[in-house]
User: Which sequence fits this backbone?
């Protein structure tokens, strides 16, 4: 695993954490009561942290996009995971846009964008894990085959 | 808004179209048409006599929106999650509750050697960049095209984040009502949050909010934000008064004009749950507004850097994508 991949994975984890911290669950379920973890219930702090992490994530995704598009073959899983990422990024950017003071988006659109952001994240987690396991299994099989 | 399957799918399609068209649907209050004029209210608190007509009218006109909780309430976990039940105390009118979206706050004291008693109708200020709507993770709190900030009681889960992030802690919760009852009532959510929606349904029909219409002293006026703000500034300048709400929390759509400075009023009013302060409030989203530009630029910079890297013949990393 190269260093960019490590940064990418840590960023995704931190984004998921600060994203879920936008819901009032960490204070309800005692995490914020743990010494040193009071910040998990600070909505403004987690909001800013989510923006900063999103900047890192978007830069990495942008960096990798040309390589990804260069790929010769696409499995159904590749496409599904890719669509989830597109959904997360688009809904996330719309959320940032609607949080600007001069912008206006209809309440119905905002509701669907918020729900979409959450749904895409919840979908991506098991899909990305399955995708990762499949690729690892394939790589192992390939190594075994080459060894023979 | 009742949500059924047809409505769910239909609004999903509309939303999908809206995402594509989002940049063109974004608009500012400067554009004027009947539906998208941002309206603001001016409250000349020197006129308020605390007769309570506005409070009564608010309850009467908005009564159909008040919660009708199902009892007994679900047992909630963990035990520290408390029930918020105002259904047996619907008559309370000396603070904000789910059944009382407007109340009269009284400030008594002395200023410049003269005693004063002022009455201040308090409700949601309908911020221009409302933290409740910006930070609601569920899309339940919203700002509409007329500058009204509301909470969709059909989908609100009652997590009270809107109350926590509101500098005045305006929204109030009622347990035992709303969508959370159909999801995981014991483990997530706790009812619905309620607050003034500036008579959104009446305003949509071209009518005036009830509290403004019934006031015998003409304390409040409503109109396009630019005009009302100009009136508020003119009134403050003419009377040597003070203005509150124009810059608070990044700007609101409610302007109070008082003959006594608001820091003096803030020290004089009773504060606590359901009884908001009158302190100065800065813009909580300064950092986010700066970071937003970086959010837009980051993917573009990443793509350009990635393409340049490829053009230079880099081939590494491909296994990790």
Assistant:
């Amino acid at each position: 695993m190269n260093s960019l991949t490590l940064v990418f994975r840590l960023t995704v984890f931190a984004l998921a954490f600060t994203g879920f911290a936008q819901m009032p669950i960490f204070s309800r379920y005692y995490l914020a009561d743990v010494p040193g973890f009071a910040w998990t219930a600070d909505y403004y702090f987690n909001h800013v942290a989510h923006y900063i992490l999103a900047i890192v994530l978007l830069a990495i995704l942008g960096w990798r996009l040309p390589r990804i598009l260069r790929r010769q073959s696409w499995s159904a899983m590749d496409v599904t995971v890719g669509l989830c990422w597109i959904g997360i990024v688009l809904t996330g950017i719309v959320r940032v846009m609607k949080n600007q003071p001069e912008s206006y988006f209809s309440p119905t659109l905002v509701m669907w964008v918020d729900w979409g952001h959450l749904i895409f994240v919840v979908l991506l987690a098991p899909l990305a894990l399955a995708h990762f396991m499949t690729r690892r299994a394939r790589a192992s099989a390939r190594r075994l085959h080459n060894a023979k | 808004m009742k949500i059924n399957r047809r409505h769910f799918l239909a609004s999903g399609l509309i939303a999908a179209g809206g995402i594509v068209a989002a940049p063109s649907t974004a608009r500012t209050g400067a554009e004027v048409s009947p539906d998208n004029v941002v309206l603001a209210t001016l409250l000349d608190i020197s006129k308020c006599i605390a007769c309570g007509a506005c409070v009564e009218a608010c309850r009467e006109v908005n009564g159909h929106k008040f919660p009708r909780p199902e009892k007994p309430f679900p047992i909630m976990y963990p035990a520290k999650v408390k029930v918020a039940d105002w259904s047996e105390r619907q008559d309370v009118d000396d603070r904000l509750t789910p059944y009382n979206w407007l109340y009269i706050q009284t400030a008594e004291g002395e200023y410049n050697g003269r005693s004063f008693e002022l009455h201040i109708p308090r409700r949601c200020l309908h911020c221009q960049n409302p933290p409740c709507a910006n930070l609601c993770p569920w899309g339940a709190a919203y700002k509409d095209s007329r500058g009204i900030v509301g909470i969709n009681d059909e989908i609100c889960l009652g997590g009270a984040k809107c109350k926590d992030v509101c500098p005045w802690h305006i929204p109030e919760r009622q347990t035992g009502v709303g969508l959370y009852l159909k999801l995981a009532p014991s483990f997530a959510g706790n009812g619905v949050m309620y607050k003034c929606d500036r008579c959104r349904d009446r305003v949509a029909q071209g009518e005036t909010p009830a509290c403004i219409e019934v006031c015998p002293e003409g304390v409040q006026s409503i109109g396009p934000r630019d005009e009302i703000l100009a009136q508020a500034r003119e009134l403050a300048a003419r009377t040597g008064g003070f203005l509150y709400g124009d810059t608070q929390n990044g700007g609101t759509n409610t302007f109070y004009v008082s003959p006594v400075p608001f820091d003096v009023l803030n020290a004089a009013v009773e504060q606590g749950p359901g009884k908001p302060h009158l302190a100065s409030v800065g813009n909580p989203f300064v950092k986010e507004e700066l970071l937003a530009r970086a959010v837009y630029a980051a993917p573009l910079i990443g793509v350009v850097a990635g393409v340049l890297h490829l053009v230079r013949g880099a081939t590494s990393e491909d296994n990790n994508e």
User: Anything to note?
Assistant: Chain B touches chain A through 70 residues (CB under 8 Å). The CA atoms of residues 95 and 272 of chain B lie 9 Å apart.
